[in-house]
Amino acid sequence: MDLTGAFGARSAAVGPCREPPGLESLHIGGGDGGFTALLELPPTQAVELLHFTDPSLSSSSQAAAAAVAGIGLDVSPPPPLHAYGALTFPSNEALMERAARFSVMANEQQQQQNGNVSGETTTTSSVPSNSDRVKTEPGETDSSQRLENNRCGKRKELDKKVKGSTKKKSKSSEENEKLPYVHVRARRGQATDSHSLAERARREKINARMKLLQELVPGCDKIQGTALVLDEIINHVQSLQRQVEMLSMRLAAVNPRIDFNFDTLLASENGSLMDGSFSGTAMQLAWPHQVTETEQSFHHRQLQQLPLPPQQWPYDGLNQPAWGREGDQDQGNGHSSLMVGSASLHPNQVKMEL
Amino acid sequence: MGSGNNPIYTGVPEKDVFALHFLQTLSNLRTQIPFSSPDKTKDRVKKIKKAAYVSMARAAGGTNRLWSRSLLHQAAKRNNKNVRLSRRRKRVTWPRRNRRDPVEEPAAERLRNLVPGGGAMETSKLMEETAHYIKCLSMQVKVMQCLVDGLSPK
Predict the structure, then answer these.
(1) A260 and which of A185, A270, A274, B26 could share a cystine (Cβ 3.0–4.6 Å)?
(2) Does Nucleus count among this protein's keywords (chain A) (predicted)?
(3) Domain enclosing residue A210, as ranges
(4) What is the pLDDT averaged over residues A91-100?
């Protein structure tokens, strides 16, 4: 009771609930009502803390609050409490809310007095995981991520002091792509000026893309070292370009003239390309385009009275793919063979011919 | 493909898109050379190769990707009737020379020479473009292989 009265007076003096002196006084006075006193210290803000919960943790928070309130009288705050209180409370709202619920002090106690209170074990055992989660996996919840970003500066210093061992990078390369600002956590023992940070961010970007390229190029996984991987990638690109050139030479050899009849190609490709890749709509889209084009070319030919150029026979391979290929070779020879051979010509074409 | 988690987008259209574009470009070749078709192999080969690259650039996303954009610009520069490109975008890359120079990367020099439009990109962007370029190249190679197999006499 004295405790509460004292704190009632103090709370007026103490501003935000994150002020260390207030907590230290709590510690000094701290006897029985460790938890409840803590909760009452800044009553309004404690309430605010309790209400400020993640949607994902809301259910657990209520259960935990009940547990804490019930158990609060049993434990006594340990000596290293103030060290924790001074540092963890000012840092993060999410942490604070969890501390208010479970109380990091309870965690400390747990480590010292094992199995002090059975009910607490379940709630407090999740505290280290929670705090770790908050620090190491920033993408977990939206609010924690937001908070982290807001308090990034403070966290840097605090984390260096407190949690040296569990320092991991909070920013992954994926986060880099999504957020407008680059939030990098300085690693332990590394420089924190903006230049090196930017350098590190850039290097990570490049490494991520290098990994992507490694997956793409076959046989690059086993190679160690970026220089060799780059060499392999360059070789791969060069080989692909050489393949394109070779295939274009072969294509040119296959067709003695550059008179690719769209339809012969389509007809002949029916089997080879139709392994589920050629969609019917794509072909339908292409055909009307070809139809109009060849009609125009026919008009031109008729007007100019030129001898039939070899490539003006679009509908040769319409229904007879095997014949179409041979027909390409014989085209230049004469019309008659084609007229005989083409069983079903397009009606427009027939009209023009006749 | 196991690239679902990748925020770097390097998606490539299906095979038939490439095939369609290639065949269209080839038929454009046909109508472009009306009558005086020189039977020299080299010319033909060059034309087919250029057609292959242009069609690949179109199929891969037209002017959305940097390498395809610069490819199409290169092709249009030679006054090729094959390639029609809107002259509005005269520049392939906006002037960002201040970005490139301070960041030195001697290893990526060869890559820049290989990938079209690579001379004006930052290294990380260059690697993105390379990944996309490799995917498109392999798709184009597949399409051409199918064509050659289909057309060659058995």
Answers:
(1) B26
(2) yes
(3) 194-255
(4) 56
CB distance A156 to A162 below 8 Å: no
User: What are the E-state strand segments in chain A?
Assistant: none
Taking the mean position of all CA atoms in its chain, how far away is CA A130? Answer: 23
* Contacts A–B by Cβ distance under 8 A: 173
Put simply, the chain A residues between 135 and 174 with a CB less than 8 A from any chain B CB are 174
**How many Cβ atoms are within 10 Å of A239's Cβ, its own excluded?**
12
Distance CA A75, CA A222 (A): 56
Q: Can you list the positions of beta strands (E) in chain B?
A: none
Task: Check residue A290 and give its pLDDT.
Answer: 45
Domain count, chain A: 1
C-alpha pair distances (Å), A288 with each of A291, A293, A299:
5, 9, 17
Sort out which chain B residues have CB atoms less than 8 A from A265's CB and list them. Answer: 23, 26, 147, 150-151
Rounded CA separation B52/B145 (Å):
12
Q: Higher model confidence: residue A67 or residue A264?
A: A264
**Cβ contacts of A271 on chain B, cutoff 8 Å:** 150
Q: Residues 48 to 87 of B: which have CB under 8 A from any A CB?
A: 48-49, 52-53
pTM for this entry: 0.48
Count Cβ atoms below 10 Å from residue A300 Cβ, excluding itself: 12
Enter the ipTM. Answer: 0.82
Do residues A85 and A27 touch, judged by C-beta distance below 8 A? yes
Question: What CATH number has the domain bearing residue A228?
Answer: 4.10.280.10
- In this complex, the residue of B6, B16, B145 whose CB is nearest that of residue A279 is B16
